[in-house]
């Protein structure tokens, strides 16, 4: 009789476990659905066309600021770009989606969060946009500092970079507040894993080419 009662209790327990598993599966499916929706919304935002990015994304507690000299470089280009929009396309790195972030191995992610990774993407875009706005302007319209920058940009170009958008560490320091430290190198590995950029070495420089 005791064995019969125990068997009955075990059957009831197994039924409860199965119900709990089914509920857990439903919750996971709901969570994945929400994540996919958020990733889709972020992807749409990332691909919305903009002429000038004015948003500020915090990186390690700081917000990138645009100096008066950099603003003087960028603003004249805005009017020209509106008049010649077909010639003013500047490629931007797409933000990393949540599924892509979750596909990154944990040893590579470390303690870097999803928001921190996309904050670096935004800083890359700021550097690329500022660089190619300077490159697109006639030399005669530039003052001394932007003119030196433009010449430096042209000297860094090679046959392998033709038709591609790229920046180097000096550009990142010039136009953002990011520091090229070990954490930055780790984030670069994550962006390469997500196929957002590749490295091109040559002439003592590492060029970060957007894909």
From TrEMBL:
Pfam families, alphabetized: SKA1
GO MF annotation terms: microtubule binding
One GO cellular component term: spindle microtubule
KW Coiled coil (keyword) present: yes
Keywords, in A-Z order: Coiled coil
Coiled-coil regions listed in the entry: 10-37
GO BP term (any one): chromosome segregation
Gene3D superfamilies on file: 6.10.250.1370, Ska1 microtubule binding domain-like (1.10.10.1890)
Family, similarity comment: Belongs to the SKA1 family.
Protein name (database record): SKA complex subunit 1
Organism phylogeny: Eukaryota, Metazoa, Chordata, Craniata, Vertebrata
Gene: SKA1
